[in-house]
Amino acid sequence: MNDEAWLFSAFGTGTLLVLIAGVYCVLVSRNLIRTIIGVEILTKAVTLLLILAGYITGRTALAQSLAITLIVIEVAVVVVAVSIVVGLYKDDDDVNAGTLTKLKG
Amino acid sequence: MLDAILLVALVLASVLTVMTARVLRAAIALAVTSAVLAVVMFRLGSPFAGVFELSVCAGLIPAILISVIGLTRRLGPEGLAARRIERLKRYWYLPVLLIIAAVILSQVNLRVDHMVQPITPEADPRTVLWNLRHLDLLGQIVVLLGGAFAVVVLLKELRNER
Fold first, then answer.
1. What is the ipTM of this complex?
2. Which of A49, A103, B62, B116 has the most beta carbons within 10 angstroms of its beta carbon?
3. 8 A C-beta contact, residue B98 and residue B11
4. Which residues of B touch A49 (CB under 8 A)?
5. Is B116–A56 a contact, with Cβ atoms under 8 angstroms apart?
6. Least confident of A25-29, B95-99, B134-138, B158-162
7. Which domain holds residue B149?
8. pTM confidence score
9. Quick check: is A44 in a domain?
10. B68 and B5 together in one domain
11. Short-list B30, B21, B62, CA closest to A45
């Protein structure tokens, strides 16, 4: 296996493992802050995949611009999610998703 | 060799982020994950994105998370011990799952049809962002303003409820 093929195989495997960790965190966590952290880990995997794709195809500039866009969106998502968590905490004195019943339809 | 070490560090840091019992430590582990990812980005020829990842994802986002964690109530030693046992029951599957996935993926042998191309002359993300992807910039501004607006509305609602 040459260097490039090894690089893609190794980084592809690493990306999928990080993705699995993020999905597991989102699915299993009940703490809302930890759920946000899980979404963050998922975003890390996607960012790495974008950069890897840019490196493999030689279009690093395009990949970087997309990664920067993704990071900006990530910040906005985290800030809004965190402010929702703060609001819920002020209301219920808890950040456990299992005890939130006010949104039940 | 360095790439392999960085990859292992990245996966371990993300697993530590998920598995650790205290949320504060999870936020710090997330910062470490972002820092390792930034180094990987530098290695893969993406220094601008690496700088963003390092400053924003390893600096700003953990700072926001830690400040929010500071607002919440901290568990005492007994509560933490109970939490650790309860978490262990839910989270021990993750390392097993990752090991199985790593073994399967090493057998699958991921291939790529496009081998590494020489980096194109317009390889400057600033040029790409300003000349080719200017709608992305507009989208970024809209997302940031939307986020700021949402935070203002949420905090205002809180104040009104009080």
1. 0.91
2. B62
3. yes
4. none
5. yes
6. B158-162
7. 124-162
8. 0.86
9. yes
10. yes
11. B30
